[in-house]
Amino acid sequence: MNETTRQDTATAQLMEQILYEVKRVVVGQDRFLERVMVAMLAQGHLLVEGVPGLAKTLTIKTLANTIRGQFKRIQFTPDLVPSDLVGTRIYNQKTGDFSTALGPVFTNLLLADEINRAPAKVQSALLEVMQERQVTIAGETHKVPSPFLVMATQNPIETEGTYPLPEAQVDRFMMKVLVDYPTDEEEFVIVERVTGPAVAVSSVATTEQLAMLQQECRRVYVDPSLVQYAVKLVSATRTPEKHGLKELGKYLSFGASPRATINLTEGARALAMMRGRTYALPEDMTDLVPDVLRHRLVLSYEALSEGLSADALVGKIMSRIAAPPRPLEHEKLAA
């Protein structure tokens, strides 16, 4: 066994241990947990939509304990101000000096609970820290710890007293994941686990090891044909007529930005790595397309009046634009 193979095996074992520890506490929600891991490996942020009580907070908190990282939760409310997030300058009357009090964004895993409950100026306070991994307070720049992941939640059933997220804010989220109710069997296990003895989560990794996994993820090979596929998908959301989807033009006011193409590529890398490969396959990307695109499409009034969702439009685009064949697939067909 050469050094590269040994390193790949160690990486796979470490990721398996992290997932195992989280699954000891969180029942079901495999797809959601997979997306959280993808965002973490690809150094992206996650927007999660689901009704209360579906283990969104529990998942991210358990993951923080597993990697010995800092976890902080901010409950977004209408009376929140930007300094409650990023921090502020405090005047000391005794010394006559100002000191900087850093806010809760200075952590490894940040949960922004019900982000749409706060006005746009508070939501926008996260813009710099999500993109630049830093905060500017009174002209001074402060770096946040690494790794850094923001997971924001939205409640879809209560719309009174909520504020829509600015487009610039939404675009900084790598994926928007929809979390659904558990199955009957999963719910039975949830009740047993919650009402039984408490499960102690073991720390199986460090933030340094997670940073190493992120570097490993960047080395996963993505074929140029797969990148070209991502480019075509995103381009079809902007100019559908160029891709034989003229009928979709009236439903889309604005398409996805180049961040979507980058996130598709990085996400495919992370998912391939989680599946134990050092190269990405077309299915790694196609699995993530709805999550990466659904929050970036601005639908027209015509689409809303006809009851069309972003997922439905993404499905039509994917049905028209074919994914590239798997490596050596053409040779198998020829044989």
Structure description:
With 335 residues, the chain is α/β, with parallel strands linked by helices. It has two domains: 211 residues, P-loop containing nucleotide triphosphate hydrolases (Rossmann fold), CATH 3.40.50.300; 104 residues, Magnesium chelatase subunit I, C-Terminal domain (Helicase, Ruva Protein, domain 3), CATH 1.10.8.80. Helices cover 46% and strands 14% of the residues. It contains 16 helices and eleven strands. The protein has a five-stranded parallel sheet. Strands 3-4 form a two-stranded antiparallel ribbon. The longest helix is centred in the first third of the chain and has 23 residues. It starts with a helix and ends with a helix. It holds the Pfam family AAA_lid_2.
Offer a few descriptive terms.
two-stranded antiparallel sheet, ChlI/MoxR_AAA_lid, ATPase_AAA-3, globular, Helicase, Ruva Protein, domain 3, Sigma_54_int, single chain, five-stranded parallel β-sheet, 335 residues, Rossmann fold
Q: Runs with pLDDT <50, length 5+?
A: none
Query: What is the CATH homology-level superfamily of the largest domain?
Result: P-loop containing nucleotide triphosphate hydrolases
User: Helicity range of the residues?
Assistant: 40-55%
Mean model confidence by pLDDT: 86
CATH top level class name of the largest domain = Alpha Beta
User: SSE order in H/E notation?
Assistant: HHEHEHEEEHHEEEHEHHHEHHHEHHH
Number of β-strand runs: 11
Structural class: alpha/beta
Strand-residue fraction? Answer: 5-15%
The overall number of domains is 2
C-alpha Rg (nearest Å): 21 Å
**CATH fold description of the largest domain:** Rossmann fold
The name of the CATH architecture of the largest domain is 3-Layer(aba) Sandwich
The number of helical elements comes to 16
Strand order of the largest sheet: 2-5-8-1-9
Q: Span between N and C termini?
A: 32 Å
The biggest sheet, with number of strands, parallel, antiparallel or mixed sense and barrel status, is: 5 strands, parallel
The best one-word shape is globular
